[in-house]
Amino acid sequence: MLPLEDESGPDHRIVTESGTFRAPRCDSEFVDTEQQGTADADLLHAAADGDLAALRELYDRHAPWLAARLHRRCNDPDVVLDVVQDSFTALWREAGSWRGDGDVGGWLWGIAFRRMISRLRQRKDVVLPPDWDAARLGVLPAAEDQVLSGVEYGDLGAALRRLSPEFRAVVQACVLDGLTAREAGRLLGVRHNTVKTRLHRAKAQLREALADTHLEGLS
Amino acid sequence: MNHVELTGVGKSYGGFRALAGVDLCLGPGVTGLLGPNGAGKTTLLRIVATSIAADSGEVRLLGRDLRGGHAELTDIRRRLGYLPQELGYPGDMSVFGFVEYVAVLKEWDDRRARHHEVRRVLELVGLADLATKRISRLSGGQRRRVGLAQSLLGSPRLLVLDEPTTGLDPAQRATLRRTLGVVAQDATVLLSTHQTEDVAALCERVVVLDGGTVRFDGSVVDMVATAAGRVWHSDHEVPDARVSWRTGTGRHRIVGGSPPPGAEAAEPTLEDAYLLMLGPDALASPA
Amino acid sequence: MSTTGWHAPPALLRRYTAGDLDAVAAASLERHVSRCADCRGGIAPALDIPGLDARGLDAAWSVVRERVEAPRLPLVIRLAQRVGLREPTAILLSAAASLRAAWLSGAVVVLGFATIAATLGDQRIWPYLLVAPLIPVLGVAAAYGDADEPFEALAVTAPYGRTRLVLLRTLGVIVSTVPVAALLGFLLPGPSWVALAWLGPALTMIPVLLALASFIGPRTAGAVVALVWSGLVLAATRGAEQTWPVAATQQAVYAGLAAVALAVIAVRARLTHQIGAAL
User: Fold this and answer.
1) What ipTM was reported for this prediction?
2) Total structural domains in chain B?
3) Between chains, do C68 and A52 touch, taking CB under 8 Å as contact?
4) Cβ(B152)–Cβ(B81) under 8 Å?
5) Distance (Å) from the C-alpha of residue B81 to the closest C-alpha of chain C?
6) Could you tell me which chains touch chain A, where touching means 3 or more CB pairs under 8 A?
7) Is residue B84 a part of any domain in this protein?
């Protein structure tokens, strides 16, 4: 009855380990990445085959948002551009071995973010963490904000907002940014077992929060 | 200055005489080497390209004697571009990789300049978009253009092309004509083909080779003129024609021999002149 | 597929690029944008950061294009570049089949087996003696093609010169195979001079191969040389000692043979009307 048990949606990052709950399907799942001509996956296959024009098309599609997203974590535009260059070069070289489901953007972010982490580590620089304190920023009206976070995360969005501060870093790293527990441990400077434990507890908290909201009859 | 001067050049392979007593004098512009298979075109081109040595006679290229020593030879090769008849491409090389390899052989040591030059020649032959494709994935005509591109590296003064039009469609031949037109302004281009249309479309001068000897050496216009008054259209066949065939309109085109009654004179083409010179075997296709 | 999903209004995208959204809202937006073609297009105009505008991204693309256009050289060659191999030379070496990881690792494996056969068996060093010199020799044979082949013809008619190219590749093969083989040789039982004694025949067979190849092509020449050497080593196991092929007297003969081969090559190179290629 509850959308919580929806079996048919694709796996979300939230469920990498436990798999006991999935965020409900949202509208954006139906967004057609194929609207504008060739699908990303097809472009990637073409690029693996040596088609430079396909890489150019992928670059035109993805470089802007990638640069924007990277910029949130590092103020230096030179570093951001460097990472963008490296990421697309890596994309070209590894295009042949991609076994993905069509989410080229996600794969690209994984490559780019990891590269940026190591680049910043070399410079003894820090990766800027996003600000979790919505109240302080208070930019979006509540309703608009609910729609926005609902788009990708459904009820999970509100639950994430109520996450205890000590869990925010690991959830940001593992769930939102897609790092492994080991990589998150290195980034945050903690042992990877600690990361796993915290993640586990964070998920428990999220599950509780989700159950609460459903009991309260919100959708 | 004459860029190519051959005097009495001969070459034999075992007992087989590929070339005998070839005299040739070429300057800037495009010259077509026409002849049936086995006429010695490839051998002649290989000698001009310094790929093999002649057995007899004198060869002077770009004002230098080929026997002048290694330094002279290297100097000639610095200003030479060569497209062999069948170019093989090793393994999984990409278009850019292959042309870059040849660029290194042509002493382009500086990376930036080399890449710039590679891109330039790829642009010239219209393959800029396929630079990263594997050559093994390209069509025959595209591969030929890759070969052509490498021959254009360094804007050579002497360009030797063995059957450059193989596998090219008419549009690509037009592009080739434009490219050669640009290149040939102060360079000597010697290209071989067994298709008269190519010569008519691309060349100002033509040399006809048969059985290892030169049968004609002059301008295309002059060669066409040799067939003047010897080509007719008629409804009837003629037994003593050199060559005749039925055209698409149902009439016969008769080259050589005496005109049958009721025949009309036809405008001669280069092909007619070629057939008159060498007979019907001249157009035999490769086996 | 349906396109009536939610899309990000431009104002929201501007807020995002300005850094005004909190973590959860931003994460949701980011996830959406990476997969929605419409919204992706909306980011670029909203990007108001100096250096990350259209010009900056275009410049970055040029760098990407530069890097991916030129092919990536084989791993072994890249490693050599780290230690100082110049790029033009590296490119010339890359076209040789026997300077690739596949060939080299195959050679190491074969030699490894030969060495193991010696250490485990009963003082049987002849497998090693058979294989070790042949590795560089066959490597050289596999590093270039017959002068008549069209691809090789390009090297003949280029200023760099085919002879120089062949010698370069020969050197590359020697440098990449000899040290490893020598190292494995020190693991052999018995007299330790064997570890280096095989160099004699190896360094003889290479000029012999080159000289022979200039007449009959590298593949055939390689086969001939391999057969002769195998015959020698195997014959030695029947009659005389195993180390006979590398004993002192034989080494002297090899030295003489090498000298003759080099002379042949030199003479061919000097024949000024031999335009094609000495090798």
Assistant:
1) 0.85
2) 3
3) yes
4) yes
5) 8
6) B, C
7) no
